[in-house]
Structures are given as C-alpha cells and as structure tokens.
Amino acid sequence: MNRNISLLLFTACSFIVTSILGVTFTPTSVSAKSATSNRVTYKMPEHFEKYLFLNTDMVTIANPQVTQGEAYSQEDYLIDVDTGGSYTTKTRFDDNTKFLTSKKGFLFNIFNWIGTLGPIYPPDVNLHELERRIEKADIYSEERRELTKQLGEIKLSARLQALIEAGYVKPEEIDDGRATKEFVATILYRILGETRPYHGGIDLKDSEDIAVRWAVEVGLPGFPVDSKGFLYPQTRLRMEAGPDDWLEEYAYQRLFDFLTLILPGRKTATGWEYYQLSLKPGMVPVRYTDLIEINGQPFEQNRVYAVMDTVDYKNFVRKVNQYATPRFQQILDLARQDALKPRAWDWSRDLIHHPKFAKEVAAYRKNKSAKNLQAVYQAVGKHYNLNRRQDSAAVIKSVLDNVK
To answer: Which domain holds residue 171?
Structure first.
C-alpha cells in the first residue's frame, strides 16, 4: 500500500470521531432490493461514535455559558449596518453567508462563542448618546440609517478589540478578507492549542503550518484533505476536499457545532471544560443516510430517496433509534475522547514501524491468526482517532500484509 492509499484512508467527513474503545455493537449488514430495483445495504456499525451527528439545536445544555455584556448576534449586526434599509430574505442569506465566511465575521462569532469576553469600547465612545440620537431621528431617514450603521461598526470593533487583548488575534491580521482555513486554524490554535495540543504526524503537501496541521488532526469541519495530501489552506472552509473557494455557510456552522459539542468548548476562569448535553425529545444522534449504501455507493453519492418509503428502510430507522438514542451519552463521551487522540496518517510510520505496536505486529506476522489481527486492531484503535475508512479489521489486515 503506497502513501496515497494511506492518505485516502485517512480522508473522511469532518465531525466524525472514532474509537475502538466503548460502545460496541455486533455490526450487521442487510441488503435488500427496493421498489426502485436498487440494491440497498443497511449497516449497523460497531462503533456508533464514528457516525455521531449533532448540532446545537438537537441538544439541551445543562451548564450554559454565562455571557458578559449585551447579547448582540450576527443578525443584529447585519441589520444595523444595512444602510439600504431593505433587509429582505435574500439579502439576509447573502449577507449572512458573506459575513460568516469573512475574517471579521468569523472573529465576531468566535467572540460570541467564547461568551466570557466583554466588548472593549474606546474611551471616547458614548453608546448611550449614540442610541439617543438614533431614537430621536426619523425612522426612515438617512440620518437614522447612518447612525445605526455607525453603532453596528462600533459594536463589532469593540468585540474584535476584546479578542486582540485576549491574545487570540493580532491587529494586523484583521481586514476585510476571507476567513481561510489557515486564518481559522491560527485563531483556534491560539485559543485551544494548550487544551488540545498537537500530537504531530500530519504531513500536508501544501502547508507546514502547525495550526493548520492541528486543525486537520483534530478533525475540525471544513478541513478535508484530498487523497494526495492537499488541503488548500488559502481557501475558505468547505466540507468537500479540493481547491474550489466557494461561499459555503454550512462548513462554518458545522465548525461551531464541533467546537461547542465535541471539544471542551466552555470557557471558565481556569481553562476549558465540556458542555453537559442531553438530547432533546425526538432527536437521534446520527443521520440514517450515513448508514446506508445504494448499489454499493454511499447514499450521498447516489441519492435514491424512494428507498425511504420502503418497509426495510423504516424498520432500519426504528432499529437505529432503539440502539443509538438511549446510548447517546456513551457515544458522545467516546467521540470526545477520540477528538483528543492523534491520527494514523502514514501506516508505515504510524503502525508498522511504531514501537508502541511492535509486539502486536510481530505476533500477527508470525501466524496471521484472527486473534492476533484483532489485537493489532484493538491497539491501533485505542491509540489513534481512526476515521470511518480506517476503522475496520480488514483495513488493518491489508496494512499489515502490504505495507513495508
């Protein structure tokens, strides 16, 4: 197996975190012909934590952050600076996406995500006077729009200044540019690099930056690596690997979900801790389509929605619900453990010649028994955060049999 194959096995969807330890389930794979004559395969994975899917709307937080100062959201800011006075649905979507994927927008949302930093205003700014002038001005006047825009920019600058004084961003790094992968990684590494340090071993072809490699190791959404080892760090976050630099709101949203729900994302006086989560009624912490294949391909690559009307699919959904939902806390804990682990990037270095696995590798190569294969698989999964493609005994067997 060559290096490219190793990298291909590493590449996987973000916000998928894995472990060999923990919730175990006898994996099953059931195939059936659907009404559409497609071959549908339903899989109950052994490690459900690899398929964990969460967002903040799906959970209740028992220890929410106590925020400092007034609540001021991204939408509040965009309404304030909308000098055209026509904040339509399309304008809202376009402006939100552009702002969310910009440096200032990303930093604004980082400020709100941290929650414990208060805005820092210049000493000569009198917010109460400015707000009084806004209230006094005619609601449809140009004066009111300009004053409201001024208020929005002042509030944004005050939040950026708080991040500067906290040491999370440098003044010269702030401009009207894009929040690229490299920029995002740099900021987050400053914030969380001590809590979740970089283990090393991520050999990107197009970046030696530690923060960027850290982001890939952690598995931050928006940082997929292609099969050749390229990340394209000067492009904005995307959920799919490649050089395209499109406006993609979803990747940034998934990033903040990951920071909040998987990493220790609650700032305290002494460091960072985990939010305590519980599933809301009716929520299931997995996407069913991640567990099925259509004609041998993942559902995302071959979307045949008609299968969702079949009895087999409905029975499968019921089975997943019955298993995953009551085990949510176990699955979440394992996912969080995995996010702290190193990655297996180069199989030759990280398994075959790694001293930690020398005993298990030697034992397997002596007689190639299923028992010894399982021992290697267990040891590797305990140490590394294996992704979906890596996490199987068959993959480990292929590595042991073919990698020098």
So the answer is: 64-273
